[in-house]
Each structure stands twice: as structure tokens, then as C-alpha cells.
Queue: 3 jobs
Job 1
Amino acid sequence: MDDKYFLKKAYEQAKKSYDEGGIPIGSVIVNNGEIIGAGHNQRIQKGSPILHGEMDAFENAGRVKASVYKNSVLYTTLSPCPMCSGTILLYGIKKVVIGENKNFLGSEELLKKNGVEVLVLDDKNCIFLMEKFIKEKPEIWNEDIGV
């Protein structure tokens, strides 16, 4: 299993959100080759101001020791926003694999400045799904990114 495999799992979460009428961003947290937390953006579905894909993955991972997070990789379909990047830093995740940053460039520089390895895969499925959503529901997308 490699980065593309786990990004595909994050994409499946993004697609799930899209199919539910939500914002198509998905994430998985992987420790020692196993997914310990998977999630998708549920701001629309649950009326939450903070339930981004990465935050949902952390929530679903539950309470784990800091040492587990420090040895984990976070996969996300879209470049993480400042809130999600802050959570990544708080829990000491050392590597983040991003599906795409064409539709939104989050806080990648903040992650890098704090020693996080950032890998952007420019995945065409991630790019297409987000482009499609932004065209279909620009007002929801603008709300999600705080515009």
C-alpha cells in the first residue's frame, strides 16, 4: 500500500460527502499501514462550522496517544486550511499527502515551516470533483473557505 492507495481512500470519503450533498473533501489518518481515522467534510450534513474532512478523520480516530499521531500520515483530498493545519501541528503529524491544491491552496507553507513533509499528488479525480462542486454550489464553497 502506498500514497496513491491511501489517497484513493480519502477520495472515497470525499465522494461520500458529495453524494450526501456536502462539500467533497475527504481524509484518512494512517498509522503503520492501517487507517486509524477516516472522515469527510460534514459542515452541510451536520450544520457544523468546523467539521472539515481532516477534523472528521481526527474525530473518528478518537483518543489516541500523541506518539501514535507522531508516527502517522494524514491524507487529504484538498490542501488543508489553517484550522486543519493547526490540528495537524498540534498532534505532531510529520507527513501530509494532499490530493490537490489547484482549487484551494491552504496552509501548506505553515506545515512546511514547522517541519511537516508535504507531498502534493495533483490527483485528477480530486481536482475534477472539487471543480465540479465549486461550479455547482459556489455559495457553499465560499462559505466553507470563509469568503
Job 2
Amino acid sequence: MRIVFATNNAHKLSEIRQILGNDIEILSLADIGCHEDIPETADTLEGNALQKAQYVYDHYHLSCFADDTGLEVDALGGEPGIYSARYAGDGHDSEANMQKLLQKLGENNNRKARFRTVIALIEKEEDDKVTEPAEKTSFFEGIVEGQIIREKRGQEGFGYDPIFQPDGYDETFAQLGLEIKNRISHRARAVEKLAKYLLKTEN
């Protein structure tokens, strides 16, 4: 099975390919010649994921999935949420994003937070009775609860990983290493649901 993952983010592609293994071939946007800046103008993670997948499906007519991930911090009313990647500006600067978050939290003792990933999948549905293939849309969600620590720890991972400590662990995502993170992360949980669905439909 071949399917497009609507991203050119090398970290995300690597994570997804490791989780899915060899059963499903994952194509990036670059692999299909898509170099456009796909809009993300929805006000929810679900909306943004669907917008990206729909763009690829409409323009390239290929089955596609897209994800959107947000870090939701309780004490900040769910911020940064859909703005997680550009919290400190449009430069997608992870260091600046972390510093802004830590600054806004300050000495607040409520450090509860969660990472939430939503995947939108759009598939071609072939039907002998219909000349045009229909499309089917499905959503898959993964959540990991944790807390925001007061200073960065660890070198691996990306984004907010050095300041997010998942519940049940004494280390941050950036300290746990990719093998453990890929097993327990929000994206891993969403992709696991996606993989089960894809492999079931494949068979």
C-alpha cells in the first residue's frame, strides 16, 4: 500500500515510517512533487489536518493523511494549541516557542499539559457502479498527558520535547529517546490507530 503523508517535516516522516514499518509505503509531499505552502487556517486540530489532506487529495487525486498536533497547557487555557509550531512567531523557532511558554507559565505550580495529535485520512473509494471514485474521510486521535517542567532537559526529539515530561516517567520526551517516545507519544497513539485501520482495510 502507498499513501501520501502531507508533510515534508523530516522528523515526522521518520517517526511515522518507524511506527508503520514496511507494510505501508509513505510518500512525502516532495515525493509527489507538491511544493505548495498548504494553508492551515482552521481553528481546530481536526480542521487543520483535514484541510491539508483535502488539499492533496483534490490536487493530486491520491489517498492521503495529514496530522496536526498541539500542546495544550491547562494553566494557559489550552495554549499554545493550534499555534504550537508558531507560538513565538511564524519562524517555527522551537527554542523561542519554549522560552515563551516557560515565561508565560512563570512560577505557576499548575504544570499540567497534554500533547494531542489528530490525523485526517482521505481515501479513494472505488465503486463499480460509480464512474467517479468517492472519497472516505476518517479521523484518528492520540493524546499523552504530562507536565511542563521548569527548564529544558535532553537533546533528542524536537519542538517542545525538552520541557514535556509524560505522566509515569521521570524524563522528558527529549531524554527518553526515539524508541520509547515512538511507543508512547501522542503521534504514536494516533498512528497506531491509523495503522490498524489501514492494515485491516488492506487485508
Job 3
Amino acid sequence: MTTKHFYKKLTALFTAVLLNFSLFSEAVIDDTFGYSLDIPEGYELSAAGNDNLSLAFNHKNLPVTLAVKIYDSEGDSLSVLQNAMQKIGSKEKPSIFTWNDSLCSVANAKFTVEVSDYEGWAVCAPTEKPGYFLTLLCYAPASMAKKCEFFIISTINSLKIGKSNTEGIFTTIAYPKEGAKALTLNIGGKKIQTKIDKIDLEASSFVINIEFNILTMYANHPLKMQAWKRYYRMIERDSKARIANVAEDVYKALYPEAKKQNAKQPELAYAQMLLNWVQDFEYAQTKASTAQNMNSGFTSLPAVLEGKGNDCDSRSMLLSILLSEKGIPCMMIFSPEYAHAMAAVKIKAPGQTFKNPKDGQEYLMGETTAKVNWGTIAQDHADRKKWLTIESE
């Protein structure tokens, strides 16, 4: 069977329906059904159905294929995925789980096309359009499936449906919620009671491990910088879902005081409180956090909140999320050349700024590892061309 005929047969069975989609670099955005995919760099559109409702993606450097399909069904995600698995000849039975406040399904896919065996994973979830289900299948030749498993998991884990903060779908499968774990944060002498989930530290480390493995694949790749950005985006997406209630609790406790300190610019006062807080962290990557994250150099935000280590990029991401979640635009910026990260907040005030290429606005730069105010940075980190952005959604 030729490659052309293989993909024609595959897309007839299991490919993507994207009525109103856009491809920006590696992002797939569908407004009709309300989902997006932030897939790893290097995927290319490899096949499409004649009805213009089906697509498949092949990776340029790895033997990995991603197929996506929207089903119109009166059933549920389990029955939809069972039907899809039967069509490709996979005998593995799907199981159900809850993700994005919806019942979803997952299956280990094993199937044969003529004499070639393939393995991978498939998931199914309801879309924002009632009665329609999104099914993803990501797979590789059976002989390469284990070596490509991190890549397959990362691809599927990039799925997002709707605009609410959710952990990745595969992370939820591997690490379902276990219940609240109380935390006490001391910010500027004020003790703030908040909570995360008992599984958050372990689950977030899982995401970091997966994404670090993906990042290392691009060490000498032309898309290395884009891969760096995606690495942080995937961690940030997971972290936002885990600490959204922390952002709320911190805001409720501190913002009234910020309004008293600076009635004209309470956002600046609030941002400075948080900047002072992360600057006071004892800079350390504990043995526990380093072991969990396979020497990735990034300490998960649940670990930071529990006092189990931190670094410049985890401090910067934490600050970015706490502010942006409460309507104060903030983003993490990083420089592979400087081996450093900072936060940048959209507040008008004197100081050094960074122009966000996404909106063209100036953002105050925030150094998280020295006791300085917003807008003060070291001269040897001042070349704006050497900084990249990680924007909060």
C-alpha cells in the first residue's frame, strides 16, 4: 500500500473535522466546536477528506501520526470511542473518566493496516457543541511505540476544550484528583490560608517530566526556540489549573491592603507585594524536586508553594499566573542565552519595559531573584532581543 493510499484509508476511518480552524505554527484552533491543540513542533497536515471535514497530521522527524475526528452522536464518549476503535480494528476496550467536568473515555489503541502494526492512545471528549464528540488518535509503528510514547502523550495532553483552566486530559487519566490539601502562605507577614489537591505535586511533576523529554528532542532542531516556548506553555497551562484557587485566596487577602497603599494604582502595589514575596524565597532546587523532574531545572509550582524548592523560571511563572488570573496582564519571559527568566506585567509605571510582540504593549519587567522594584533589571540582562515571551492565556 502506498503512503497516499494508506492516509486515504486512515482519514476515512479516523481523522479530524475542523470546520472553522486555523493553523498558527503548530496550534490547531477550532471555533465551531470550541477546542484547540498545542501540538509539538514539526507536525504537518498530511491528508484531508474530500468533504473538507477530515484532516490528519504527520510529524516530519518522528514516525508519529495524529488523527482527530468529530462525531455527531446521540450516545456518550464511551460508545463513540468504542465505535471508533472497532473501525480501525483495535480490540482494546475503552474506559471512562472525568475531565473538564465531562465524562470522557480513553483506550490503548493497537491495530494493523495490511501487514503493518501500530500502537498508540485514543481519547474521546464532548465538545462545546451539544451532541458532538471529539476523538483523538495518536500512534506510531508498534516497533517504535514505546520510544515515542512521551511524544504521543504530550500531543494528546495538549487538547483544550473551552476556555476554562483544566489540566491536560492525559494528566487527569494518570493522576485523578485525591482531595484538598491545606496550605498556609506567608506573604509580607500576612498568613493566607489556601489549598491545592493532594495529587498536584506528583501530577505537575509528571507534566514537567514529559515535556522536558520532548524539549530535549529539539536540542539541535531548527524549531528549538518554538519548542522552548511550548515547554513552558504546557507547564503553565497545567499550573494555572492547579493554583487558580490559590490566586483567588491571595487576591482576596492582599488586594484590599494594596488599595490602601496606592489608591491610584492598586494593581502596582499588589504586584509589588507578590514580587517582594517571591524575591524572598530561598533560592534552591531541593533533591526531591530535582529527582521528580529528571534534572529539567524547573520546580513545579505546587512544590514551590509547599516550600520544596524554586528557581527563577518557577518564581516568574508563579508570579505571572497569580497576577494574570486576577485580571492583571502578566507574562513570563525567558532567555536561553542568559539562562534566566523574569515576569513582565502590563502596568504603566517608571522602569525598564519589554514590548510584548503579541499585543505591541509595553510591560514592566520584574526581576524575581534580587530585591528590586518592578522595572529594575541588571544591565547584563538588558538586551531585549534575547528575551522570549510565554503569554498567559
